[in-house]
Amino acid sequence: SLRKGSMNSDTCVRPSVNTACSTGSVSTVAVLDDDEDVAVSIAHNLQRAGFRAFAYSSEHGLLEGAVADPFDAVIADWMLGRGTALAVVATLRSIERYRDIPLVVLSGNLCLNGEPTCPELRRAIVEYGLIFRSKPRRTADLVADIRPLAHRDERA
Questions:
Q1: CA dist 107 to 6, 35, 51, 69, 110, Å?
Q2: Which of 66, 51, 53, 59 is nearest to 20 (CA)?
Q3: At 25, is the pLDDT very low, low, confident or very high (cuts 50, 70, 90)?
Q4: What does pTM read for this prediction?
């Protein structure tokens, strides 16, 4: 089950219990969407798939969470309020711990046939090594996108 908490009035939903993946360890995933219900839903489904998942509804909350409890992967909606996730992506990639983690960006409005149409988004995908997925995206498909990458250190 989920327990809601807050970080400087930003919404953050944290798991009340940790669930282990089949490997015995838990990968931590941050979910960022300005629609709190969407972030909570994705985080809840990721928890059911065996991840520790935190749901954030603001960039500020996610960045505070990144310091307090490091993530192994991030899933972020590209469109956040009146802007984009570019600033949070750039900030995360500037931090050593987050330079190579899987960072999935989702967009439904800025793509055609599953490909991004926004020049800013296309540049960010290349510059920051983002994984782009069009919306809607089933949680099972998101799990398939991040599970092998989030667990890559365990195979070494």
A1: 26, 13, 22, 26, 6
A2: 51
A3: low
A4: 0.79
